[in-house]
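Quick one: structure for this chain?
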Amino acid sequence: MMISDLNIKVDRDLCITCGVCVERCIMDNLRLFVPPCQAACPIHMNCQGYVRLIAQGKEEEAAQEMRKYLPFAGILGRVCHHPCEQVCERNKIGDGAVHIRALKRYLADRYPEVAGALLPMKRENGKRVAIVGSGPSGLMAAHDLRVSGHQVAVFDESSEPGGLLRWAIPSFILPTEEVDKAICMLINMGIEFFTGKRLGGNLDLKSLEKDYDAILLAIGLGESVSLTIPGIDQEGVLQGLTLLKRVKENNPPRLGDSVIVIGGGNSAVDCALTCMRLGAKDVRMVCLEDRDNMPAFDWELQVAQEEGIKLVNGLGPRRIVRTGTGKLSVETSRCVSLYDDKGVFCPTLEDEPNKEFEADSIVIAIGQKLKSNCLPADLLDGTKSIIVDPLTLQSPTHSKVFFSGAISGAGSVVEAMAQGREAAKSIARFVSGDGMRWGRDFWVENGYLKEYEAILERAKGGARMILERVPIKKRTLEKEVEMPLTPEQAKQEAERCMSCGRPAEVNKTCWMCLPCEIECPQEALQVRLPYQVR
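Got it. Here's what it folds into:
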């Protein structure tokens, strides 16, 4: 496809890649260069749009642009793993990516009524959808289905909705108030929530299939993976999810002065930081991986080490014993390899013990899994994994049943939300009798080109700012570690955006008819007309 700019001129400081020009072009001549940040975002967030509006001093408009894509900015502004920042072109200059996630949080906190505004909903279509699970995937699907006119009921086994957002992410990372805001928004939209309902217990899939037009199973991975080593059932050995949930329920366990956390992922870091806030003076994380290959995000590990948590790498536990002094002791061996010859995770340890570690308590945080016996056998394969169409997220054995979230492979909060959105699209088509497979490429359907034009000479401002954190001595179970941006900091950081995305001509069919120019909300596009015409 040939790209030229013979007939249009774009002010890239003003363009927010909103796509209005593409929609208005009657000759199908325009497409959008997709910025790398948006291309990397699982929910295709128009990062450049709201960042450029902040830079222009149009913060409320920025919050409105953000709301078009995302109902839960206050959540993702805190817990998203921001793949957008990993591909930011500022990295090539060497001064660090734009703080896209922090700017999202800034808008959500400063303009909560805009960021959490209710979108116009389509007329009720009489179709009823049940969603089992109220984590990030279920909440996103509930929102999108309700906006498209469906009646939505959400079922969750806990006493309050929110799933792992509420029960497994510490409040010093994601305040409970942000989860409450999301639930209140959905209730105000007319979505019903039913708590204390466990699939496979007092909630029956057959009954749901009888009463609803479609069912989304977004139940997440709500059970800790445990170790199969001697001594795992000793008193003082806790599962990671149990620890985190008990803290959220204001029923924290007594840990003692020393704690060993087994695991190297983000959940293990959350557990270790929680133990410090519960009063432990010596917290060590013991994991199989070396420091450079730990699953936890690097910035989380930095916070952990900043707070005095010790990382013990390359060791795997062999057994747990009770010592003569009443403490617990973990016997470990050196990890030889993490994967077998087929690439399957299968750690191999040396035969001889390597080191022993004593502690008052041990927390097992090596991963999560689907709760046992909650799904009918015909939804699973021989390995107890769900059988699901990867495009439509529909079950091949139960036509009304769809899956989304961690249960179907999403590995982060934003990925779970993205799957919830895709499942909602499939369900909306399914209940209306439409095909579910066509038109699933977001970029093609919305007029994007999977390329972009970064001009490094456009880089303005200095290096990526270092986000301030609450002083270590003032950190508690409730106080957020990362401090919000000030208005001055937000504008300064937003001005670093290089505006990699923009409209471009692709078909040389311009009639110079001007709707693209006239209707550009930012007055960023100008059609090059002959002098006599202009």
